[in-house]
Amino acid sequence: MFKKIDHVGIAVKNLDEAIKVWEGLGFKVEEVEEVPDQKVRVAVIKVGESRIELLEATSEDSPIAKFIEKRGEGIHHLAIGVENIEAKLEELKEKGYRLIDEKPRIGAGGAKIAFVHPKSVTGVLLELCERKE
Ligand SMILES: C[C@H](C(=O)O)C(=O)SCCNC(=O)CCNC(=O)[C@H](O)C(C)(C)COP(=O)(O)OP(=O)(O)OC[C@H]1O[C@@H](n2cnc3c(N)ncnc32)[C@H](O)[C@@H]1OP(=O)(O)O
Ligand SMILES: [Co+2]
Fold first, then answer.
1. pLDDT of residue 98
2. Which residues form a coiled coil (predicted)?
3. What does the pLDDT read at residue 1?
4. Secondary structure, 3-state, 56-106
5. What is the mean pLDDT of residues 118-128?
6. What is the Å distance from ligand 2's center to 9 Cα?
């Protein structure tokens, strides 16, 4: 059911500056994409079969803005690749996990994504991600 670690999301204040830092380390930003539904701008770095997502808020009420206000920059979420996101959401709902999204939404690269609340997942914001490879 779980395919791989799809990506680690990192909240940053300024995407262009963060890209310089990460490319200075030797990583390569493949693409930068705005995801209006999530109020973020995303820089995608491929690392083997996984990705790093650098995330900048595109509005004051973006979840990324609130996160940074409260906790500063840093690791924001862990995204796991799944075969069937609807089935997984159903299963977790039945098991009593607190779903932020009952139905998947569209994320970066057109993936189907849904979040499970950190309070249900030992303090980790978990993202389920179904991607047509
Ligand atoms: C597009 C791209 C993609 O992959 O395609 C993305 O990832 S989009 C990535 C951006 N989109 C998202 O993050 C959408 C899902 N996130 C959300 O719905 C929200 O951010 C949220 C429900 C996790 C938290 O929102 P909130 O208004 O409740 O914020 P609060 O600050 O009050 O958080 C409530 C409690 O959760 C904790 N908390 C909040 N955010 C996180 C986090 N990222 N990781 C771990 N814990 C967290 C807070 O410390 C607090 O705990 P305590 O009470 O103990 O202090
Ligand atoms: Co993500």
1. 98
2. 75-102
3. 85
4. EECCCCCHHHHHHHHHCCEEEEEEEEECCHHHHHHHHHHCCCCECCCCCEE
5. 98
6. 5
Among the bound ligands, the one closest to the CA of 43:
1
Q: What's the ipTM?
A: 0.98
| Whether the predicted pLDDT of 132 surpasses 90 | no
How far away, in angstroms, is 47 Cα from ligand 2 center? 15
Is the CB–ligand 1 distance for residue 57 below 6 Å? no
| Tens digits of residue pLDDT in 16-32 | 999 999 999 999 999 99
Residue 131 CA to residue 133 CA, distance in Å, equals 6
Q: How far is the CA of 72 from the centre of ligand 1 (A)?
A: 13
Ordered by start, the domain boundaries in the chain are: 2-130
pTM: 0.97
The identity of residue 97, as a single letter, is: Y
Of the CATH numbers 3.40.190.10, 3.30.1490.20, 3.10.180.10, 2.60.120.380, which one belongs to the domain with range 2-130? 3.10.180.10
